[in-house]
Amino acid sequence: QKEVEQDPGPLSVPEGAIVSLNCTYSNSAFQYFMWYRQYSRKGPELLMYTYSSGNKEDGRFTAQVDKSSKYISLFIRDSQPSDSATYLCAMSPYGNNRLAFGKGNQVVVIP
Amino acid sequence: DVKVTQSSRYLVKRTGEKVFLECVQDMDHENMFWYRQDPGLGLRLIYFSYDVKMKEKGDIPEGYSVSREKKERFSLILESASTNQTSMYLCASSPEVRGQETQYFGPGTRLLVL
Questions:
Q1: What sign results for the dihedral spanned by CA atoms B59, B65, B70, B73?
Q2: Could you check whether the bond before residue A93 is cis, i.e. omega within 30 degrees of 0?
Q3: Predicted confidence band at A73 (pLDDT cuts at 50, 70, 90)?
Q4: With contacts defined as CB-CB under 8 Å, which chain A residues touch B107?
């Protein structure tokens, strides 16, 4: 079993819809959880960063962590064509700089 | 803003050539990383470095070496390029601060080995 599982998609949604992405993981030591956005032929850029369980909101983006279920989610409200990208989840234990990445989930927002 | 730059966006090399990929970060980060990214395989860690002249193997170090002579610069070397090293190469850096495990990525280098 891979440490981090992420359904690669692709996921196509109409403009204005809510996008829901998720990752599951197996390592209970993971404490820090990140979502990266990667546009085509570009490097990943940090989108959201959360510590332990709970929710974090930033504009149209909400990140959720459920450590009891080993499950993290990213929600994008009022999706825009500019949100079309690949979204990668990443996580690490406390004090460990190596990140475990999901394979990425391609999202296409159709105008 | 953290800035990570990579020397080339696109490279085309011949099989057997020695290839150097350079990465520079301007935020005084202690940690630097090299990944390759392939469709269906995601990001895979090749090498990383916690400090100048320090290096650690990642998950797929075979066929690669690295050099870190200065804190801001981390080089990836393909000793003898092969076609299966055609890939997107990504450099990243992060601070050595507990609770800030976030990595910041460069724009990537697309390498084609013919």
A1: negative
A2: no
A3: very high
A4: 42-43
